[in-house]
Amino acid sequence: MRYTIKDSVQHSIKIQRSEFIAFLHPVADAESTQNLLREHQAQYSDATHNCYAYVLGFDGETQYYSDAGEPGGTAGKPILNSLLRNDISGVLAVVTRYYGGIKLGVKGLIDAYTLATTEALALAETVPYQEYTHFVISCDYAHVDKLRHQISQAGGQELAADYHEKVDLRIQIPKAEAEGFAEILASAHGLDRLDYYLENKQ
Question: What CATH class is the domain 3-128?
Fold first, then answer.
């Protein structure tokens, strides 16, 4: 079984005067992952390195990592391997390093990035990873609260909201609930657009 984490986690360790801060974030897709990554890099632009890895998909089919300036194979891959060893998906892991003046060498770096990620994972609350169907729904402002209640009742999550003349909600619903949820939406008033994507548009 594959798992994800319920909430974001932060954990810091110090090795030979270098500080390694591991951040774990639950993520839904590549777009939200890249947005979080850009925000993190901007917030910690003073760090020596912001190395990261992420795994997405029910089968972990999307995997990516970056050493972010550390010697090749010493940071991003160890972070990724820590996620894979724990059967984790739907997670972005960033390990931010502040260099302390002592070089750790290849093995030392691999061990440090592995330890920071592994200890952060041990602190995280894991839950079974679910397959989701994604929707974009456009609705009147008067119907937003009711729609959000229906999303919650279906075990879904709101990923983003755009407020214009209408409200566009980008959401994900557990795949097992998606067909029933779509039927409810199809008969609802105040919804101008129901757009299935990802699973439904492939």
Answer: alpha beta
Query: What is the tens place of the pLDDT at every residue in 72-109?
Result: 999 999 999 999 999 999 999 999 999 999 999 999 99
SS3 content of the chain, % helix, strand, coil (to 5): 35, 35, 30
Distance CA 1, CA 53 (A): 20
Per-residue pLDDT tens digits for 48-67: 999 999 999 888 999 999 99
126-128 and 91-98 strand pairing? unpaired
CATH numeric code, 132-201: 3.30.70.240
Separation of CA 187 from chain center: 32
CA dist., res. 143 & res. 151, Å (int): 12
Domain segments of the chain as ranges: 3-128, 132-201
Nearest to 93 by CA among 105, 79, 103: 79
Query: Which DSSP letter does residue 125 get?
Result: P
Sheet (strand 191-197) strand order: 157-163, 167-174, 132-139, 191-197
Cα torsion for 73, 78, 83, 85, to the nearest 10°?
A: 110
Helix axis angle, 144-153 to 175-186, nearest 10°: 150
